[in-house]
Write a structure and sequence with these properties.
heterodimer; A: alpha+beta; four-stranded antiparallel beta sheet; about 65% helix; elongated; B: alpha+beta; 6 helices; globular
Chain lengths: ~725, ~210
Amino acid sequence: MKRAALWLLGAALLAAMAWWRWPAGAVVHTDFYDLLPGTGDTLWQQRAARQAATVYDGQLVLLAAGDDTLAAQAFVDAAVASLGDARDPGQTWREILTALKAQRFNLLSQRQAQRLAQNPQALLQDFQRVLYSPLGSAALSQLPADPAGLWRGYVLELIQLQGDMPVQNVALASVQVRLHDAALLAKWRALKQQAAAQGLAFYATGAPLFAAAAKQSASVEMRTVGLASLLVLLLLLWRFLRSWRALALVLLCVGSGLVAGFLITVSALGSVHVLTLVFGATLIGVAADYAFHYLAHARKPGNVLADVLPGLRLSVISSGLAFALLLLLPFPGMRQTGLFMASGLLASFATVVLLYPVLYRPPEKLPALPRLMYKKPILLPYRVLLVVCAMSAAGLYWLGSAADDTGTDDVRNYYRPASDVEADRAAIAERLGNTGDSRFLLFYGDNEQQLAQREAQLADLAVPVYSLLVPSEKRQRENYELIKQLYRSAAFAEHLRSLGFDEAGIASVRAQLPAEFAPIVDVPFSDAPGLGQRLGCERGVCASWAPLGSAVNTAELSARLEHSEGVVLINPIADFNVLLSEYRSKVLLLLLAAAALAGLIGALLYDVKTALSILWLPLIACCGSLLFMAFVFAGLSLAAVLAALVVAGVSLDYAIFKALSAQEHYPKTLLAITLSSLTSIIAFGALMFSSTPFLSQFGLGIAVGLGIAYGLVWFRAGSVAIEENP
Amino acid sequence: MIRACIAVLLLLAMPVSAEDVLARALAQLERSEHISGRFVQEKQLAFLPRPFVSAGVFELDAKSGLIWQVRQPLSSRMTVHAGRVEIDGQVVQDQGVGRLMAQIMLGFMAGDLSGITEHFEISAAPDEVDTGLPWQLRLTPKARRLQMAIKYLQLAGDSALRELIIAEADNNATRISMTPDTVDVERDESSVALELGDSIEKGEKSEKSEKAQ
């Protein structure tokens, strides 16, 4: 009972620590930038990426296309009403432009400024052509305020930068969705059908739709794959253990590990990334080993712990320390995973050691151990073993050295949207001339003025920078002077006269120009849709970002960037892929370090021979899994390497249990390993059927590795054969 | 007898329904694949002493769309084809005005108003509007976006659409008068100039009379 009290005390302390240290707000993060070290340039990148993501959070872009534009518009309006609240970027723009209009004499596009400087009369004549066309109606009404069409031209050029022009025969809208998940998907599909019935094509894209499709796909996978594998697991456990209590204890062992891992990671590091949780779920495989090892040995009442503790202890020390090594890496994601796994394994170990002796009583009638468990291990001569180990080490070395060339990591493998959702995204991107480019420009400057000047250097490439709205003070002054020159010219007066203004009207128009230049200082907006934003100033550095609008010529931009100071092109997907590649290299190194550490611990606790007789099995299983994955997928991915890490952890347990098992307990140890292998292979193998490439590769890697490990369990390293058990 | 008289009076007093006006318009419209003619566009603006007038020629074709050629006082050419609006060869953001004009004109030319009724409530024009033409219609936009730009459209005509008034949301209005003909538009410069001259003269006269008052 003392043991149970100790376990309860530990659980209470853990709960108290979590309560004391639990951070406010969301603790599970999904942002890939959380996996990056948050320093230097990365800090600004993170802020820019988050701002870019926030703009589209919860928002869907709708597009209807057809010969009848008005019908398409009416359909989109109805779709907006049925999906949520209209989020009209046009309205936001109207508010921004209304606020800016009073300071219109400081604002000119680069093209307008050039024309005004070179040939103001041509600019006025072009404006008159518009005024006399049927399209000039709105401009006519605004003549006193905008007599040369400069404000109108400036606004139109801004709109052009957003990429919604010139798109013909389509209607576009944005909506802040009210519906979620299954309801949203159902509505979206119904709208597509309704549109088709009206001879229109309807498309929608945005984060809520992708999230809904992903959730639906995950829940289908969970229901089919998860339930099937759970059923098989229960059958297996029942077949060999014949005890519901044993089943409950296995779940308790795994559950306590997961809960403790989660609580400790969040309490210590403040948050946990969703990928850490995905990888952390593999704790189930390792932690279940401890439970099986105990339960398989507990066939009769008595002190089972004495038989299994040496194996369990060595296992938890080696695996726990190996995962704790991850805490030394500079990547937040890796540190989280290391802490999660190490603390989770320790908690599962504590559950088995402290609670199982109290709670578990073997059933009175247990079926006899299968005959297979008494089978004599096949002797594997040291010579053969040496060759196989050397080949495995060479394989690992080759994989490590060729990792950069053969890497197949792509962040898009972590998330593959349903084909119909992806088709809509592609259709909208194609029609808007936007390829869904996630790249953006990051500007740096010593102050806001320098930042605005650097942004302006790229304005002629149609980069939608924030300074298009609020240029640098120098540019504002130049614009004001150009407009002032125009207003005072005789050509301007003649232009107004030809439009029908009398002398009083001309004087009234001219009087609107402020006598003195006054810069725009009070900026009541920062989130103009489609434009970049300021990121603020810190430690003498100011930064801003700008998306790559659809009108940007990226080839020309790249050439210009080579000679531009204070601006860099950020490609988040390429950055993520580099990050994944770095993670992969680090985990490969960690595998080698973990092997060395496990060998060292084994040698210290027992002897070198025992340590070597343990290490060969995980080494070969690990290399086998990695080589198989490298061969099948023509390169290594992080998924394959993480799978190898799990294989290493689990197969190390097999080797330890096997090596430290007394000869009379060997069949029971084999039963524990068999149960663990079968359950792990079934549970992780089921992931192979996931539609997410990362999970599918991860599952396959583990299933293959553990399959190899289980095959090797039937071999024994040495020079003398063991007598077969009776 | 008295009852019959009352019934007739009531019948006469009843407003003409939209369906009736639409039916009357459709009955009179001459279906065609191609129309050309002259136009005069006029807009009254509070800050200008005389109306803002332009004139020119147009050509409307079921296949190639609308060509709107302003000849006076400045030359410009607007084309609307397959939803694409250009002025002097440059694609422009027209906020729907050009496309709407083309759609309405094509609908009346073909005698098929189904596309128009889908987007507008059709009603009879109020009695005070008298253009002297056999039929008059008022189209009120159904869609919110269109309502933000246009209050209503007023159309009048006989065998063809003759007059289009665009009442804008800011209370300004543009009147476009059209005279269909079959004369080659390239050879009809003189009549355009004549009509524009008349219109400007009318504006100047009204300006003078206002000043005199």
